[in-house]
Sequence to fold (95 residues):
Amino acid sequence: MIQLLNFLKTNKLAFAVSIAYVGSGTLAVCSMYPNDVLYGGWSELVFFITFPVSILSFGYRFAESSNLVTVFFIQFLMLVLTFLLLSKFFQKYGI
Fold:
């Protein structure tokens, strides 16, 4: 557990960027249906910007629209993957 906290502490920027990027994609996917609370034209734009991390959730959402728990699980996995990739990228280029 201490190693995980140290890893997060040394990669704060990668974690913040991952949270913002995947979080906005999650919000966009959860706002695509006309009966969703935050439905609007903005969700399509944000979805296309966050397409690489949102495509699986988008596909699942339109196959099973009523189950958002699985969408959140998929997006959590994408958050972890994005964080790990950004951490390596930032370390490699000294950001």
